[in-house]
Specification:
Helix 1 packs parallel to helix 2 and helix 3 packs parallel to helix 5. The chain is globular. The N and C termini lie far apart (41 Å). It contains eight helices and twelve strands. A nine-stranded mixed sheet has the order 11-10-9-8-4-7-6-5-12. A three-stranded parallel sheet has the order 1-2-3, with helices on both faces. The chain has 284 residues and is α+β, with helices and mostly antiparallel strands.
Amino acid sequence: MDLAVVSTPTKFHAEAVESALRAGKHVLCEKPLARNLAEAEKVLEIAGRRRLVLKTGYNYRYMAHVRMAHDLIRGGAIGALHSMRARYGHGGRPGYEKHWCTDRDLSGGGVLLEQGIHILDLMRYVFGEPACILALAECLFWPFEGTEDNCFLLAQCEAGKTAQIHVSWTQWVNLFSVEIFGRDGYLHLTGRDGHYGSQRLIWGKRQSDHSRPIEQEFEFPPPDTSWDLEWKDFVESIGSGREPMSHPADSCRTLQLVEAAYQSSQRREWTDVTSAAISVRSAR
């Protein structure tokens, strides 16, 4: 046996990953890497010391519309970026109040850690690294003790870019929508297959005379190849010795943002998430 896949409730991620690493196995762990940063940093240190590949399953990076958006942005298709707006949610399901992901001990958090962490990861991947966060995490409907069913978040990124994020378990109808705006146009990603609908991307091109933008729409019908691409990245990183996408340090950074958002919500204030600020908080 060369590797292990960890896909348990989040409470058991750190323990299972640590056991596999100590046994000399490469690991693909479902997101998030752990319930909190302290648990994640422990396995990060073990992976580095043993020179094993540890990858976290941020599968959305491999979805066709996300990959196309990433390439278009890198190629300057919509010019310098200035804002991002993301909405992601569902309305639960029968018996949802008994599901493990709504139990804080098992999950580590609510909708922000369960679904919002995907959006935070995509923000870093296609839009920019945040410098400060303002968040409000609340339970508005579901009877979950200590677990939020909605999170409203603003992130101020470098060069004045701003991201607006709302993740929800009271969306009622499944929704995945990410809009990215730049000097020369915009991108709108919708769907993630299944009940969320097919993956689609609209590329809007702003006209110099400010008339209606010209839009191109791209649809990526099933089957979804993101799981195959994620697995390929993991296996190839083992063979080549390179770091996989969503490597441990990457995963810890995203968990830092989640913890900062929870802290912001509790204090009702902006929270600094620059590297220097995180280091100071960790030292305390």
